[in-house]
Amino acid sequence: MQLSVWEKPMDLKNRGDLNRIIEDPPHKRKLEASATDSSDGSSSEDGREDQSLKTKRNRTEGHGSPGLEEAEREDKGTRTPPPQILLPLEERVTHFRDMLLERGVSAFSTWEKELHKIVFDPRYLLLNSEERKQIFEQFVKTRIKEEYKEKKSKLLLAKEEFKKLLEESKVSPRTTFKEFAEKYGRDQRFRLVQKRKDQEHFFNQFILILKKRDKENRLRLRRMR
Q1: Distance (Å, whole) CA 200 – CA 205
Q2: Measured distance CA(29)–CA(200) in Å, rounded
Q3: Which of 36, 86, 191, 197 is the most core-located residue (most Cβ within 10 A)?
Q4: How far apart are CA 166 and CA 206, in angstroms?
Q5: For the segment 171-212, what is each residue's pLDDT rounded down to a tens digit?
Q6: Residues 146-152: what's their mean pLDDT?
Q7: Which sequence ranges form a coiled-coil region, renumbered to this chain (predicted)?
């Protein structure tokens, strides 16, 4: 089509001199002058060609050109993203809470320390800055009680498994914790109790029970004699 199309930059929007040049471009004046020179009654081939070129230019530059308008619409469509449908606030809050839970955000930590766990999750952008911190504070208050219950439940379960290991190991009242740990330290039930002091505490409780049983058995034997 021999047509150049351009978008005016923002900093040139209000340039009156450019607007005048665009409305009356130099190449347009040249073509009109050429058409005037060739309209002196002669029917030369060059004159017809100039007039034909002017007509084509008027067609392509006209605002009613379907092809150009369609191209402009398509070009704008590629640059302007479709409008996003914003979810209701209640749903966005629910998704944000789910993200905090799934990402393992600790109720015993701070927003700044936990931020790296969630900042790259798409659900992080569902709320603005103020809403995020507000929901985080609410989440923390609720999770403190829940995490305490979960930890207590896990510790009780670990204690039961640890006790089963002690019973199966056939330890005696004279067995030390060091001996027990060296022999069964790799057992999964031993590792369920994560803190060393808890391991020793549960072991010592079990040994005390064994010693008490042993003492009762010895007293019973004495009475029988």
Answers
A1: 8
A2: 99
A3: 191
A4: 8
A5: 888 899 999 999 999 999 998 888 899 999 999 999 999 899
A6: 83
A7: 141-168
